[in-house]
Design a protein that fits this description.
The complex is a heterotrimer of chains A (about 600), B (about 230) and C (about 120). Helices cover about 35% and strands about 20% of the residues of chain A. Chain B is built from 9 helices and 7 strands, in the order ββαββαβββααααααα. Chain B is about 30% helix and about 15% strand. Chain B is elongated. The longest helix of chain B is centred in the last third of the chain and has 16 residues. By secondary structure, chain C is mainly α. In chain C, helix 1 packs across helix 3. The longest helix of chain C has 29 residues. Classes of the chains: A alpha/beta (about 600), B alpha+beta (about 230), C mainly alpha (about 120). Chains in contact: A-B, B-C. The interface between A and B is large, with 62 and 56 residues.
Chain lengths: ~600, ~230, ~120
């Protein structure tokens, strides 16, 4: 193998979305030699699509608001498998992190008193569920993700981190001691393959919604970081937990924010009935996302869907009036007109539950370092590897994420990872050596694709994988379908291993990237399938028709999928918050 | 349908060429130009273009469609095709890397030149800085920019002087910070824009307004900057 | 290519000069137009009388100077737009200098000639 070009950094962040940029900012400001690898220009990252806001108890709408109430909601929303120490950290550190964003210039919407505007979102309550609906989601109209991502990028421009934009990370470089020593990456413009070495590597690569046929996720959300971790033999946690967002535009899959319902919109079936009143009498349309999505599917199954095929329900907004819609939900008006051909000022929007978010991911400590288990089942930190954001499972979302908590997750844990790496580098972690054979191992699949001479096409295989996941691992899951799905995926693994990359050119070869992404999709899909089949209960987003009850006796725990032997192990949930009494599992009602 | 696509692979082609591809459109279903590109890429995987969010917010897929810049993902084929024909080219004025992919370094250099970040020399308060809804409303129509480059690459002044004229996108950003009640660096920002090129190469032909996929108005922002410069300088 | 060759080294000043000179030229044009419209069948004596008045001399010289300033800013802009290495390669700098010297010379002649013409009119 020819000698690779090598770049060296103190901290390397893979992914230029909210979590990656927040981590990069922390590291670059501390003066460490920091690089961000991003397969797209950072402001193109999927964080840009987040609409509704960032949930955090900054006590603007309600001066008595308390981060502990937010913590309670999040624990309950997670169906009790969110780690309470991590949730405590996120909710208590949150206000500081949000104020930092504001100081960086994020153009939040404002209240009359000049403070940050907050809107109600699903699953929010005051006084530990006893004080009614809270309004805790800080918003910049319905473009909060866009505003946040651009603000973070702007801050990074100021701080001077190195950006390797339009570089694609192929695989982690893992040395003989099992430590991560950087990544192999492709500079997309030239096709050059480079070894980017680093003392600490942060995977902030976002989600993998593209494993499903119908998703709100961007075309590039292919789980690259999770795929890399799995191929390196590291486990993933709670990967069976996939959130289906209640309101994706029917047919197009484009997201319509929960903020619509927060501002007073509601769902109706073909009879014009506000059906959520039946399923969640108190919270109604602002129940947890898993609850609303399931209710919608039941409406469809029972024949109360709208349209000729009865395949969607309607989101009604017109009663809010044009002024409110224009000032609070301008982006939604735009998207609805473009993709649903309806004007929400007059007509309701056709919506359907659509894959939206990966609650699972690379298990990490609160400070971001990635974890695996030793032979005795004890947590063991992985040297040199960190993860943050949707790619990570710290775990604050457990079995179901609350709206607005993902952006908070990004900035709180992106920052935490940065702080921790800074500390570790200052204490003198040495650069980890990688041998020629380590580098070769990390370049193996690239070499495989480059050497392919015949086989099936990437596009066709991807479509088959997505349809398989959609059919067998959707909102409702059963043993029989999942078994069949796993068999299909095994077949797909074989076929993808023999698939063909016809275009071997160097300059901006997107066909090669799509092939490499397909490997990642497969890893995530397969892990999802095996973990979903293993968890024999219904909890949060994981709803099984053959095991409809939550089973706290056996499954009040994380699942941990190990790729090498395709084994699902259990890992204890943290019930030891440092400063508040533990929230004991209760029945989850909205 | 006949689609004529700009093709160029620097390793193989001496010069770029327009290559015709034909494709059957499904009846009764509206396709966006990006959907069309995805189908063409299945026919010929070597076709390269940028894309990501496919809903008009990430700004990846700015291209030139039958002569007009726009985002492929939110432009219906029926809106740009003329008599069943569609020509797809990269954004004009920037170096082409391959096919529909342009090198946007000059565009981003100009973006960075305006110091596109909030500058405030006061120590931050414990909470957020206060801003009235009216002050915040000044940022509407400015902060929504997605940096797709459609405007600047439709601007002749940017074509002629991409290294010196900041261009509509960069100037929209410049004004976004000038207009922010929390920013304290207006005087310095204006001083940096005073030269004959950065702002004053704008000739007000409003191509930028015409093509902006987010419906923003860089020309108005440029006018406001000029107004501020005149007020500061006289 | 820097601002060195622009008239005032400042885009703002150029901008103001261009607009101010445009106003002067517009007013001058109006003034001439109304003079010619009001007075039918002018003879040489009337013309000399009109252009020879002190105020009209000053105005004419101002108009000539405005033409030069306005022209310089505009021509300089056109030169920096079109005479660029992108089209002309390494020769661009030399070509542009030649163009600018040419423009400057031309405008100087106009000014010199204009001042002679208007200022030195027989009183």
């Amino acid at each position: 193998m020819a000698a690779l070009r090598k770049l060296e950094f103190d901290g390397l962040i893979v992914g230029g979305g909210g979590a990656g940029l927040r981590a990069a900012l922390e590291l670059a400001q501390s003066g460490l030699k920091t690089a961000v690898i991003s397969k797209v220009f950072p402001t193109r990252s999927h964080t840009v699509s987040a609409q509704g806001g960032i949930t955090c108890a900054i006590a603007s709408e309600d001066p008595d608001d308390d981060w502990r109430w937010h913590m309670y909601d999040t624990v309950k929303g997670s169906d009790y498998i969110g780690d309470q120490d991590a949730i405590e950290y996120m909710c208590s550190e949150g206000p500081q992190a949000v104020f930092e964003l504001e100081h960086m210039g994020l153009p939040f919407s404002r209240t009359e008193s000049g403070r940050i505007y907050q809107r109600p979102f699903g699953g929010q309550s005051k006084d530990y569920g006893k004080g009614g609906q809270a309004a805790r989601t800080c918003a910049a109209a319905d473009r909060t993700g866009h505003a946040l991502l651009h603000t973070l990028y702007q801050a990074n421009v100021k701080s001077g981190a190195t950006f390797l934009n339009e570089w694609f990370a192929v695989d982690l470089v893992k040395n003989q001691d099992g430590a991560v020593a950087g990544v192999i990456a492709i500079e997309i413009e030239t096709g050059d393959v480079v070894y980017v070495a680093s003392r600490a590597t942060v995977l902030a690569t976002g989600g993998a919604g593209r494993i499903y046929a119908s998703t709100t996720n961007a075309l590039m959300n292919t789980g690259d970081g999770v795929g890399m971790a799995l191929r390196a033999g590291f486990p993933v946690q709670d990967i069976e937990m996939w959130q289906f967002h209640p309101t994706g535009i029917a047919g197009a899959g484009v997201l319509v924010t929960e903020g619509c319902r927060g501002e007073g919109g509601y769902l109706i079936n073909k009879d014009g009935e506000r059906f959520m009143e039946r399923y969640a009498p108190t919270a109604k349309d602002l129940a947890g996302r898993d609850v609303v999505a399931r209710s919608m599917i039941i409406e469809l199954i029972e024949g109360r869907g709208c349209g000729e095929a009865g395949d969607h329900v309607l989101l009604k907004l017109d009663h809010l009036g044009e002024t409110v819609l224009n000032s609070r939900l301008p982006g939604i008006l735009e998207l609805s007109r473009t993709f649903a051909h309806v004007d929400p000022v007059r007509q309701p929007i056709p919506v359907v539950p659509t894959c939206h978010y990966m609650m699972g991911g690379i298990p990490t400590q609160v400070r971001g370092q990635a974890l695996t288990q030793d032979e005795a089942g004890r947590d063991q930190a992985i040297e040199g590897l960190y993860a943050a954001g949707e790619a990570a499972c710290v775990s604050v979302h457990g079995a179901n994420r609350l709206g607005g908590n993902s952006l908070l997750d990004l900035i709180v844990f992106g920052r935490a990872a940065g702080l921790h790496i800074e500390q570790a580098v200052r204490q003198g972690i040495s650069a980890r050596e990688a041998s020629e054979s380590d580098l070769e191992a990390a370049s193996a699949r690239l070499a495989r694709w480059n050497a392919s001479t015949s086989g099936e096409s990437v596009a066709a295989l991807k479509r088959e994988l997505q349809n398989c996941m959609q059919t067998s691992f959707g909102v409702f899951r059963t043993e029989k379908h999942m078994r069949r799905g796993i068999e299909s995926l095994k077949g797909l693994r074989e076929r993808i291993g023999n698939a063909h990359l016809p275009d071997k050119s160097n300059a901006f070869n997107t066909a090669r990237l799509e092939a490499l992404e397909l490997d990642n999709l497969l890893e995530v899909a397969y892990a999802t399938a095996v973990a979903a089949e293993a968890r024999r209960e219904s909890r949060g987003a994981h709803a099984r028709e053959d095991h409809q009850q939550r089973d706290d006796e056996n499954w009040l725990c994380h699942s941990l999928y190990f790729p090498d032997d395709e084994r699902v192990a259990k890992r204890a949930v943290n019930f030891e918050p440092a400063t508040v009494p533990v929230f004991e599992p209760m029945e989850r009602r909205y | 349908m006949q689609v004529s696509v700009y093709r160029y692979d620097p390793d193989v082609d001496e010069a770029p060429q327009m290559r015709d591809m034909s494709i059957d459109l499904p009846e009764g279903k509206e396709l966006m130009v990006l959907d069309l590109l995805e189908r063409l890429k299945e026919q010929d995987p070597s076709l390269s273009y940028r894309r990501s969010c496919r809903e008009g917010v990430c700004g990846s897929d700015g291209i030139n469609m039958n002569g007009l810049n726009g985002l492929a993902c939110i432009t219906p084929v029926s809106q740009v095709a003329k008599r069943g024909k569609l020509a797809l080219r990269p954004l004009p004025g920037l170096p082409v890397i391959r096919d529909l992919v342009v090198d946007m370094s000059q565009f981003f250099d100009q973006f960075e030149k305006v110091r596109p970040y909030l500058i405030n020399d006061q120590p931050p308060p414990a909470q957020e800085r206060l801003q009235s809804p009216e002050e915040r409303a000044e940022l509407d129509g400015l902060y929504e920019c997605i940096l797709c480059g459609c405007c600047s690459t439709a601007c002749p002044s940017f074509w002629w002087n991409p290294d010196k004229f900041v261009g509509p996108a960069g100037l929209l950003q410049a004004y976004r910070f000038l207009a922010d009640s929390r920013d304290t660096a207006s005087a310095e920002r204006l001083r940096d824009l005073e030269d004959p090129f950065s702002v004053f190469r704008c000739r007000g032909i409003m191509n930028c307004v015409n093509v902006c996929p987010k419906g923003l108005n860089p020309t108005r922002a440029i006018g406001k900057i000029r107004g501020l410069l005149v007020r500061q300088g006289t | 290519m820097t601002q060195v060759t622009s008239l005032a080294r400042s885009g703002l000043a150029d901008f103001l000069i261009q607009r101010l000179s445009a106003v002067v030229l517009a007013l001058y044009t109006l003034c001439l137009l109304s003079f010619f419209l009001v007075n039918d069948g002018l003879d040489h004596r009337q013309l000399v009388e009109f252009f020879g008045s002190a105020s009209m001399r000053a105005f004419s010289v101002l108009a000539v100077l405005s033409t030069a300033a306005h022209g310089w800013v505009g021509l300089w802009t056109v030169g920096t737009d079109y005479i660029r290495p992108h089209y002309f390669g390494a020769r661009a700098v030399v070509l542009r200098m030649a163009y600018q010297v040419g423009c400057a010379l031309l405008l100087f002649i106009y000014v010199w000639w204009g001042i002679r013409l208007f200022w030195m009119l027989p009183g």
